[in-house]
Amino acid sequence: MTTQTQTPADVAAMKTSPAPMAAPAQPKGKDGRGATTVDDAVVAKIAGIAIQEIDGVHALGGGAARALGTLREKVGQKDLTQGVSVEVGQTQVAVDVTLVVEYPHPLQDVADRARDAVYTAIEDLVGMEVTEVNITITDIHVPSDDAEEDANQEPRVA
């Protein structure tokens, strides 16, 4: 069973009257020429590069991530996103960073400089607002640890 809600006169009137104008589509991007999407991995890589340039940062990532990173470096690959986790929205980014600080650099000072570097890099390069940068320091690197490892190795020349 079909129920007709319009009469033939209503249909004829609709055909002769102008069609209602559609609402204008929202422009994509700032200039209306299209949208730009930045992948989470790109934002994480930018943050990782910015942090590695900070004096006092020895490494990014926790113990397991650093162990895998060492293996990658031995085969000629470096993971610039190691120890960096990002959450990217439409216009905002939140970043979590895990790092190891060189002894005797002040931990809070290194964390503050790393945080500032991430804010600056993401806002300048990506053009998105950074809502927060959480930094977790999991270890400190003592230069004497490297000297002990070097002492256990055999000399390379006689």
From TrEMBL:
InterPro entries, A to Z: Asp23
Stretches for region Disordered: 1-35
Source domain of life: Bacteria
Pfam families (alphabetical): Asp23
Stretches of the chain forming a coiled coil according to its record: none
Protein family membership: Belongs to the asp23 family.
Protein name: Asp23/Gls24 family envelope stress response protein
UniProt source species: Pseudarthrobacter quantipunctorum
